[in-house]
Amino acid sequence: MNLLKKLSISTLLVGLSLSLSSCTASDNKEKSKKASEELPTITYYDVGTPQEDTGEVVEAINEYLDKSDAGYHLNLQFFDWGEYEQRLQLASNAGDDWDIAFTANWSGPYKNLVEKGAFADITDLIDEKGQAIKDSLSEDVLKGASIEGRLYGAPAAAKNVVPGNYFVWNKAYVDKYKIDIDSVKTIKDLEPYLKEVKENEASVDYPFNIVSDFLLQTPTPQSEATPGVAVKEENGKLIAYNSWADPELKKQLDVLKDYMDKGYINPSAPQMNAGDGEEGDRWLVTKAEGGPDSDGIWSNSFKSEVISSPAGNKTIVTNQKATGSLAAINSQSEHKELAMDFLNRMYSDKELMRYLTYGIEGKHYDLVDGKVEKYEDTKYDVPAFTFLASENMTPLTTSEDSDTPEAKEKLDKFLENLEPSPILGFNFDRKSVESEAGNVEQTIFEYEKNLKTGAFDEDYYQEFLDKLNTAGIDKLIEEVQNQLDNWDRK
After folding, report:
1. Annotated domain spans of the chain
2. Pick from 71, 73, 74, 98: which is nearest to 84 by CA?
3. pTM (2 decimals)?
4. Which of 94, 242, 460, 473 is the most buried if burial means most Cβ atoms within 10 Å?
5. Residue 197: alpha-carbon gap to chain centroid
């Protein structure tokens, strides 16, 4: 056989081989694509400004789920803060095809959507497929998130830890004015420091950096049964009362009014929403909910290094705190077990949590000594707290190390000051007073933003109390008391 013929045959065989190889690769790719398309997809609704790179992050998550043999893919959708609650309610009413949704006592709200049958009862499902979730949560948290003894959402709380109320300080001014932040326990204690900074810092117009959602707190924390009605324990008996007429609360309101009159609070505060407050060097102190290791998150939010101190001597574990952030499964979902599997992974898989909360390494953040350093121009900047397993999140570079003696001491002190609410697990049934409850809520909505920011006078406050009476708050208190008297308190 001559050389030309050998080359021709060789070329033919190579060509055939390449063709077969190409066909095989193409077939495999097509089969892989088809298999991927046939996988069930879990649709996850979350609150937060829609991000440009969400699609890329979801692709990366799905590749990661494939490597982990999850057997399903994720479809993550964000809805703006102002529209999320209505969007979730409409989706639930219309029977939209979603599987997991963020919810909270302030978003949904959780209890209302449970009563409407929107969320699945996951009590038994967590026992079967949610071991990592159960390992992360204390009995108090599970009890506080339950309704009539059943659980309808996975709470976002590390073991024994619920959000506490903190004063968050601009560290530069704390250092400059040598402020002993640990001595400050109430908003009244803030006054000398607010005065000093306002008088001496040209860039600080309003040192008390609060907006309309200010966390109003009494020295003895209230346990709310329903908006407008709180419960206290006296001599072993639970007593329902008008929370807004409480003398302790009125003292706090008067302090806020005094601060507004003295120019410590922005006059526009009643019209300002979360995220509208001052940043950088334009404020001294604010108030926020978080944990003993939240300084890094707050520093990132305020674009300034902050430090924090507990606002008060104790943190009460209430139903409200246990339901401050949850993930619920659609009662109509065809993929309840897969949805629970995904939630369980969020409590056990740090890499998955990094994708969800920070995006793609090298595109949205860098890992520096085991911590996340977010890019300033990231196109995936989402509210990480909505993704449940905060103790499973990789810390930011601005966060202190959690394994230092100082950090452990802060955590131990926080845990020592936790105390269960006397009505933990009590869920008020408002059916018999639906009209009064709705009227009271509407009245509070109309007045509370001004009250909580100090933008009121005595006539305004009295007018508010009178309207609560007209709305039927006495009947509401009576019904809460009746249910408390018949509650099997375990």
Report:
1. 41-160+322-396, 164-317+423-486
2. 98
3. 0.75
4. 473
5. 31
